[in-house]
Design goal:
heterodimer; A: Purple Acid Phosphatase, chain A, domain 2; 6-stranded mixed beta sheet; B: 98 residues; alpha+beta; 3-stranded mixed beta sheet
């Protein structure tokens, strides 16, 4: 069995020292790897990333992360990622990693993703340059995700995002802000390349479960949504991968 | 002339005559901009003359700061803090997938 723990939106600040670690005491007993779905820090400061790295130090399971919008706020996202990488955490952006769990391989492709909305109510790359840039950013990240997923050779493939690929897991948020919470382009990328699971965060008032139009399960693992420090996914060893 | 009109319009800020929509927007903007909070996800409502904050924050320090930040952004208004900083439970939820 492959056991994957996941959480998003930890929002670690310099005032978070010692708060996370006790909640992760049993993580190595519960899971084979730990995935973090962005908004790791509150303001995107390297000193906040150092607090997170210390809280995760010596967990005993490989940890893979994507950044979220909060991690970009101070324009120091590269420094934030470097602090985490130096602490042994793999940070993905349009890239992928394969981890071995016993005799199985788990592939994780990740991107922060971005907004734009969902079919029937989505932004188009039309009009002002600012609007084209907004939609263009999401298209670029979705293309990279699609390529990263397609290149994965693994028994199970997981797409790790911060922004949501579907509207279903945003239910509970004001509909007016859906375009700032995710984009159908991310779901389209997943459906084109295939995956066994999509994980995201970002929507604190959202819902836990959804599915891409192509049938891939989507889970919102933002901590305020799951209500616990992390959620664990067990993959049936006899189940068929996507 | 234009300056006078603009000054008059700005005088409405922070008074009971200011529309709730603008009051909420100013409180939200302050919560996002202030480095002590940097909060985008809180709910802000106006109940009569009271500004009500709700939602979850990650630490007790941030829970205290959100009131200070909003009170400064909307002077003269009472700010009611219904936010929680309880944190998540340690016991994980487990789901089995094919």
């Amino acid at each position: 069995m492959i056991r994957v723990a996941a959480a998003g939106d930890l929002h670690v600040g310099v005032d978070s020292v010692g708060r996370l670690r006790p909640l992760l005491a049993d993580l190595a007993r519960d899971a084979d790897l730990f995935l973090l779905a962005g908004d790791l820090t509150q303001r995107g400061r390297p000193e906040e990333a150092k607090v997170l790295a210390a809280e995760l130090d010596g967990l005993g399971v490989p940890t893979v992360a994507v950044l979220g919008n909060h991690d970009y706020h101070s324009d120091e996202q590269a420094a934030v990622a470097k602090v985490l990488e130096d602490a042994g955490i793999t940070v993905l952006e349009g890239s992928a990693v394969v981890l071995r769990v016993g005799d199985r391989r788990v592939g994780v492709a990740g991107t922060k993703g971005f907004g734009g909305g969902f079919a029937g109510a989505s932004a188009s790359d039309f009009g002002e340059p600012e609007m084209k840039a907004f939609v263009g950013e999401t298209r670029k990240l979705a293309r990279r995700l699609e390529r990263a997923l397609a290149a994965l050779r693994a028994d199970r493939r997981i797409a790790l995002l911060h922004y949501s690929p579907v509207a279903e897991t945003l239910a509970g948020e004001p509909r007016e802000i859906y375009p700032f919470l995710g984009s159908y382009l991310l779901a389209e990328a997943v459906d084109r390349s295939g995956a066994d699971l999509v994980l995201h965060g970002h929507a604190h008032r959202g819902s836990p479960s959804g599915m891409t139009p192509g049938g891939v399960p989507v889970r919102n693992v933002a901590v305020p949504v799951i209500g616990c420090a992390y959620q664990v996914f067990h993959f049936d060893p006899d189940g068929a991968p996507a | 002339m234009i300056e006078e009109l603009l000054a008059k319009a700005h005088e409405q800020e922070g008074t009971d005559d200011e529309p709730d929509e603008y009051l909420i927007a100013r409180a939200q903007d302050a919560l996002v901009r202030d480095p002590r909070t940097a909060e985008l996800e809180l709910d802000i409502a106006v109940d009569g003359s009271v500004v009500v904050l709700s939602g979850a924050v990650a630490t007790p320090e941030r829970q205290a700061a959100v009131v200070e930040v909003v009170a400064k952004a909307v002077p003269g208004r009472e700010v009611r803090n219904l936010t929680s900083a309880d944190g998540p439970l340690a016991a994980p939820f487990v789901e089995t997938l094919p």
